[in-house]
Amino acid sequence: MTPKPIRAIVVGGTGYTGAELVRLALAHPSLEVTAIVGNTTAGQAVADILPSLKGVIDGTVQAFDPDAIAAQADAAFCALPHAASAEAVSALRERGLPVLDLSADFRFEDVSVYEAWYGKHPVPERLNEAVYGLVELHREELRSADLIAVPGCYPTASTLALAPLVDSGLIKPEGIVVDAKSGVSGAGRGLSSSTHFPEVGEGVRAYKAGAHRHGPEIEQELSRLAGAPIRIAFVPHLVPMSRGILATCYAQASAGSVTAATCVEAARSLYEGSASVHVLDEGQHPDTLWVRGSNRVHVAYTQDPNSGMIIAMSTIDNLVKGASGQAIQCLNVRFGLDEGAGLQATAQWP
Predict the structure, then answer these.
(1) Taking the domains of the chain in order of start, what are their residue ranges?
(2) 232-238 and 205-206: which strand pairing?
(3) What is the model's pTM?
(4) Which CATH class is domain 6-129?
(5) Residue among 78, 153, 249, 263 flagged as catalytic
(6) In the predicted model, is pLDDT for residue 155 greater than 80?
(7) Could you point out which of 65, 301, 307, 344 has its C-alpha 20 to 30 Å from the C-alpha of 315?
(8) Does the annotation mark 330 as catalytic?
(9) How far is residue 148's CA from residue 101's CA, in Å, rounded to a whole number?
(10) Pair 297, 99: CB distance under 8 Å
(11) How far apart are alpha carbons 127 and 105 in whole angstroms?
């Protein structure tokens, strides 16, 4: 007998990450999208808001009603803005629904860190319920989690590149630099001069250098692995493409015996059996185009012969592994499905 599909609702389903969630969920062999929930778009035809779904979904965007959602779903994805998400998530959890939250509202263990970067937390009492949704590092905890905090895109790319080195003690904990570059869709669907095509189409720029709120999220996960505080210098850049993140991370080797080959070996050991992470051979460099539209992660390592520094690199699609695909990967683990279910599509290349 064919098992019943898992009914899923996407709250905030008309933004970029929400739309990507719907796209991936529709192709998932064990998921059924029972509703798309919006705020300002409630009552409008889904196909008018998301033209890519014309002829696929004929219904309308629903207003947020936690009782109605709980009655229609076995799990909810929440792709609302930071702070707004927390209250919606809390309302759904009160009704016993497992929630996968794509905002930053439940990613931090320490509420003071969250509030330093995002403002007052609406429901801090729920922080201890959440499990950080980076499957490669928290797989066992996620199997029984009912509130999953899906990581941000920069933290996903950066942490996956550095985690094997920190976990194996191959790099020194001080002096780590993360230089990351993102496509413009990472800024969301809202309009602003900083993401207006004529102002991004021909240039590359750093922004919020040393002051980006994803920095503390990367530090939290690396410190967890190290068992001691780790601080990084984090500089994000905006590049003129729609999708993709390239994270290039620099660190001092912990000993003279550490080489790029040592790092490759450590990464292959940590990510053995992963449905998403592929470790490139020594000397190869990852490209965002190789993972575009997929839930794949390419990580690579090299060593600068002059300084001896280890250079760890990774590429992801910020809307897939950096958000929506990662959420579905978490759901797969939580509901006992194959971890890569619905996520096996290769990259859109070229």
Answers:
(1) 6-129, 154-318
(2) antiparallel
(3) 0.97
(4) alpha beta
(5) 153
(6) yes
(7) 307
(8) no
(9) 6
(10) no
(11) 8
